[in-house]
Design brief:
Membrane topology: Multi-pass membrane protein
Oligomer: single chain
Main location: membrane
Family: Belongs to the TerC family.
Organism: Uliginosibacterium flavum
Order of helices and strands: HHHHHHHHHH
Radius of gyration: 19 Å
Shape: globular
Protein name: TerC family protein
Number of strands: 0
């Protein structure tokens, strides 16, 4: 119970939910496409079981990610990937990437499609959520990850359309999400074991000034790169037209 009274816990849960909602749009699309040919009676079961299977798989992947992040240089690599994921989130969308998702009129075939597709597409979520859990510190990383994912399930499955409409109406939601990934990336980078001799204090904890400067720097970097590359992509798209 003491865990639920800590501000850092709820801050990290909020980050995980926001990450999963922003990066979970693809997952909602996959679920819809894979289950579209199921009968109405089976469609809800397909959505629920496909989502449960995908979430369990993601928890397993995040467990390995949290373990691997203890190895030198892997946090730096993860931070670079997070920066790129945040930048991609801010750039104009290209062609539909879900055209190869096969629908099925059989329940377990549709569930398998959802789980396999989610496995292929989960790298961004896994890295981002592992980074948010790492940032919370302490010995409660996996409970934090599981709790955050469980809370986000109904948001992804039943609230995805609402979230998409909010993003279309308020583009700032996407900007905040992209910069959040940059914030987590900055913190992840300076907490890499190879840099800790220079970024940590005598107790082995990150120096607050370094932590917040790196986090803010990551957020600003995502914003600047997203704006610059997005502008270039828009010009290319207009030229093609």
């Amino acid at each position: 119970m003491e865990l639920f009274l800590q501000a850092e816990f709820w801050l990290a849960v909020g980050q995980i939910i926001m990450i999963d909602v922003l990066l979970g749009g693809d997952n909602a699309v996959v679920i819809a496409l894979a289950c579209r040919q199921l009968s109405p009676a089976l469609r809800t079961k397909g959505i629920v079981w496909g989502t449960v299977g995908a979430i369990v798989l993601r928890v397993i992947l995040i467990f390995f990610a949290l373990t691997l992040l203890k190895i030198s240089f892997l946090k730096l690599i993860g931070a670079v990937l997070l920066i790129w994921i945040g930048v991609k989130l801010l750039m104009p969308e290209g062609d539909d990437e879900h055209g190869n998702i096969q629908a099925s009129d059989r329940l377990w075939s549709a569930v398998k499609t959802v789980i396999v597709a989610d496995f292929v597409m989960s790298l961004d979520n896994v890295i981002a959520i592992a980074g948010a859990a790492e940032g919370a510190g302490g010995d409660h990383k996996m409970p934090l990850v599981i709790f955050g994912l469980l809370v986000s399930i109904p948001i992804i499955v039943w609230g995805s359309q609402l979230v998409i409409k909010l993003m279309e109406r308020f583009p700032a939601v996407i900007l905040i999400g992209g910069m959040l990934l940059g914030w987590i990336a900055g913190h992840m980078a300076v907490s890499d074991p190879v840099l800790m001799p220079w970024t940590a204090d005598a107790a082995g904890e990150l120096v607050p000034a370094v932590k917040y400067a790196a986090s803010a720097g990551g957020a600003i970097l995502v914003w600047v790169l997203g704006k610059y590359l997005g502008r270039g992509k828009s010009k290319v798209g207009q030229a093609d037209v």
